[in-house]
Write a structure and sequence with these properties.
It is built from four helices and three strands, in the order αβββααα. It is of the alpha+beta class. Strands 1-2-3 form a three-stranded antiparallel β-sheet, with helices on one face. A hairpin with a 4-residue loop joins β1 and β2. The protein is globular, with a radius of gyration of 15 Å. The protein starts with a helix and ends in a 16-residue tail after the last helix. It comes from Enterococcus phoeniculicola ATCC BAA-412. Belongs to the NifU family. This is NifU family SUF system FeS assembly protein. One of its GO terms (biological process) is iron-sulfur cluster assembly.
Length: 155
C-alpha cells in the first residue's frame, strides 16, 4: 500500500474515533473518577472506571476536546477495557513512548491507538494525544504513585 494511501487510512481511523467515540458517556457506578484538562488548548476529559478484581470491567469518558484528544480517548478505552490494572499501566507507558517518537515493542497491543504515532511529528499535539492516557494513569495509581491493583485483593 502506498504511503499516501496508508496516511489516508490512518487519518480516516482517527476521524472515525473522533466523530463516533467509543465508550463515550458516563457510568452508572464507578470505582475511580478523574477530571483532567490541557490548559494549552482547553481539552477537558472526565474519565470513569469500574475496576473489579484488578480488571477494568467498564470505562467511559466525557468532556470536550480536539479531534486528536477525543480520538485518543476513544482508542484508549478500547485498548484497556478488560485488561488488568498492570496491563493498562504497561499500555500507558507504551503509548507515551510511541507519541514521543520512540520505538515501542508490541505496538499492536495498543490497537488503533498505535495509529497516533504520527503525533510525534507535531510536539504541540502530544499533550492532546496523551490527556486521556494521563487521566487513566492517575486513576489507576494512588497519591504516592503506586498501583491501585493491590487494593482489589482485599477480602
Amino acid at each position: 500500500m502506498g504511503l499516501s494511501k496508508l496516511d489516508n487510512l490512518y487519518r480516516q481511523v482517527i476521524l472515525d474515533h473522533s466523530s463516533h467515540p467509543h465508550h463515550h458517556g458516563t457510568l452508572d457506578e464507578s470505582t475511580q473518577k478523574i477530571e483532567m484538562n490541557n490548559p494549552t488548548c482547553g481539552d477537558v476529559i472526565q474519565l470513569e472506571l469500574s475496576v473489579e478484581e484488578n480488571v477494568i470491567k467498564q470505562i467511559a469518558f466525557d468532556g470536550s476536546g480536539c479531534s486528536i484528544s477525543t480520538a485518543s480517548a476513544s482508542m484508549m478505552t478500547d485498548a484497556v477495557l478488560g485488561k488488568t490494572v498492570e496491563e493498562a499501566e504497561t499500555l500507558i507507558q507504551q503509548f507515551s513512548q510511541l507519541v514521543q517518537g520512540k520505538e515501542v515493542t508490541n505496538e499492536d497491543d495498543l490497537g488503533d491507538a498505535a495509529m497516533l504515532s504520527g503525533v510525534a511529528k507535531f510536539p504541540a499535539r502530544i499533550k492532546c494525544a496523551t490527556l486521556a492516557w494521563k487521566a487513566l494513569e492517575q486513576a489507576v495509581t494512588d497519591e504516592s504513585g503506586k498501583s491501585i491493583a493491590h487494593q482489589y485483593h482485599k477480602e
